[in-house]
C-alpha cells in the first residue's frame, strides 16, 4: 500500500511544461524544413506567405509580451509596425539602404515613441489604457497620411531593398525566408529570457496584483514601461522586414484594424503563451489566404470561424496542443 502514492506520483507528469519546451522547437524545425517542400511540389507562393506570417508573428509576439505577460491591452500596437516600415521606406527613398544604419535608427524611433506614449498611457488603467493606446495609434496613422512627400494616403513604393555592407540580402526569396525565421527565433528567445528573468517575474506579478508588487519595493510603472518599449522595438523590427518584403509601405500598416488583427493572432494562439503568438499568426494568415482563394466573401466565414474557435478552445491553439498532449500521455 505504501508504494501506491509513489506510483501515482510517477504517472502524473507535468504536461504543460513539457509542451512549452517541445512545441517551440517543433515549430521552428518545421518552419526550417518548409523551403524543402517547394522542391517537392508545394506551391511557390506559400514560401512568400509563410515569410509574411513569420513577420507578423514577430509583431504578435511583441504584443503578447505586454498583453499576455503584462496584462496590458494595447490597441495601437500596429503603430510600431508602421514606424518600422516607414523608417525603412523613407531611408531607402533618401538613398540610405545600409541595414547597419537604418535598423538602429528605426529601433531608436520606436523606442522614443514607445517611451513617450507608454509614459502617458501607463498612467491609466483598464478601458482608459485601451482607448489612449488606440488614440496614439491613430495619431501615427494620420501623421503617415499627411506625409505627402512620401506618398501620403497612397503609400510609398520602394524600388530598392535594404542592404548589408553593400550586399542585397533580401532579394532572394529563400534567403529572405531564413532571415525572417532567424529574426523570429531571436525575438522568441529574447522574450522567453525576459519572461524567465526577475524582470519578467515582476511583470507577471504586477499583472496579478500591482499593489503587492509596489509594497515589495518595485516600481510597477517602470517595469511595465520597460516591457512596452522592448515590445515596441520588436514590432518595429517586424515593420522593417515587412517593408523589405512587400517593397511598399502604407498608412494602413498603422490602422486600428491592423492592431485588432494582432490582438486576434495573440488570442487565437493563446494569450500569455509566447509560442502561441507564433502559431496564432501563422494560423491567421494561412487561413485568410486559403479562404480568400475560395470565395470573395471569405471574411463572412473567417470572422465567425475565429470567434467560435476561441470560444470553444480555452487557451487558443497552445491550450489545445497542451490538452491533446495531456490526453495522449494519459
TrEMBL record:
Localization per record? Cell membrane
What stretches pass through the bilayer? 22-42, 54-87, 99-120, 127-150, 170-191, 263-286, 298-322
What keyword terms does UniProt attach to this protein? Cell membrane, Membrane, Transmembrane, Transmembrane helix
Q: How does it sit in the membrane?
A: Multi-pass membrane protein
The superkingdom of the source organism is Bacteria
Q: Does the keyword Chloroplast apply?
A: no
- InterPro entries found in the cross-reference section: ABC_transp_permease, LivM-like
Q: Does the keyword Transmembrane helix apply?
A: yes
The protein's name is: Branched-chain amino acid transport system permease protein
List the source organism. Bosea robiniae
